[in-house]
């Protein structure tokens, strides 16, 4: 593998997993080379295939040429290597355990279930919609009256969830519901996050563009399965 000094992120623009890494890098104020996979669903770049030979999925972070895969692992890696720059996880082990629990919940119940919303149809899609709305409400309860999930400071759980802002439109149009009505506090949280420089400068894609991309994918691959 070509030795890459410093940091490089391999990504594909609609990926919520890649967005998390971009926000974390921005929070930490780290410079990195951004490399977009041209058409990840059809063919992978040689660098991606070498960096993640097992799954060949984005995002991958290359640190001095060494690959780190999986968005949750990447964000935690950045926090461990640069602990003094905008710490993302709480300092105490119990706080960290809780944050990791919520990150896992978000991964499965929001983004995992979100895939089902636009890949399935009929009854199965309706079940996914109910599951998704339940998860939004659980997160509303966890956020409660706090500014961010960790309290006053934007942190790990916020970073893991914030890409949902770019995906709400797609989830809503396929699932036929309004997040504003089902989870108004989460909507307000999303707007608050969007005002942060780290989120604004991380190129979260336009929700309309994400929706168009998903429609294009569905047309191209009828009978898509969620996993
Ligand atoms: N759990 C992984 C999921 C990564 C993932 O699903 N990446 C998608 C893009 S969002 C991908 O590379 N898909 C191409 C493929 O599976 O061939 C993470 O959090 O990084």
TrEMBL record:
Keywords: Transferase
GO molecular function terms noted in the UniProt entry: glutathione transferase activity
Segments crossing the lipid bilayer: none
Keyword Transferase: yes
Keyword Ribonucleoprotein: no
Residue span(s) of domain GST C-terminal: 92-223
EC number per UniProt: 2.5.1.18
Enzyme class: transferase
PANTHER family from the UniProt entry: GLUTATHIONE S-TRANSFERASE U19, GLUTATHIONE S-TRANSFERASE, GST, SUPERFAMILY, GST DOMAIN CONTAINING
Recorded family membership: Belongs to the GST superfamily.
Protein name (record): glutathione transferase
Organism, as annotated: Musa acuminata subsp. malaccensis (Wild banana)
Taxonomic path: Eukaryota, Viridiplantae, Streptophyta, Embryophyta, Tracheophyta
């Amino acid at each position: 593998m070509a030795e890459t000094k410093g940091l490089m992120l391999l990504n594909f623009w609609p990926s919520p997993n890649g967005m998390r890494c971009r926000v974390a890098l921005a929070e930490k104020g780290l410079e990195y080379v951004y490399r977009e996979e041209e058409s990840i669903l059809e063919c992978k770049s040689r660098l991606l295939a070498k960096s993640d030979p097992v799954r060949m999925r984005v995002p991958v972070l290359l640190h001095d040429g060494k690959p780190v895969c999986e968005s949750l692992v990447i964000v935690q890696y950045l926090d461990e290597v640069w602990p003094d720059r905008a710490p993302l996880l709480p300092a105490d082990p119990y706080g960290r355990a809780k944050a990791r629990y919520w990150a896992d919940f978000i991964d499965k119940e929001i983004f995992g279930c979100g895939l089902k919303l636009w890949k399935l149809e009929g009854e199965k899609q309706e079940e996914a919609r109910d599951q998704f709305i339940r998860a939004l409400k659980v997160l509303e309860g966890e956020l409660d009256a706090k500014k961010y999930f960790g309290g006053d400071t934007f942190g790990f759980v916020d970073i893991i969830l914030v890409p949902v802002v770019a995906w709400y439109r797609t989830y809503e149009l396929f699932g036929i519901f309004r997040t504003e009505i089902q989870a108004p506090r989460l909507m307000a949280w999303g707007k608050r996050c969007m005002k942060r420089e780290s989120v604004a400068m991380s190129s979260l894609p336009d929700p309309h563009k994400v929706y168009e991309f998903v429609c294009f994918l569905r047309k191209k691959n009828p009978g898509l399965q969620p996993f």
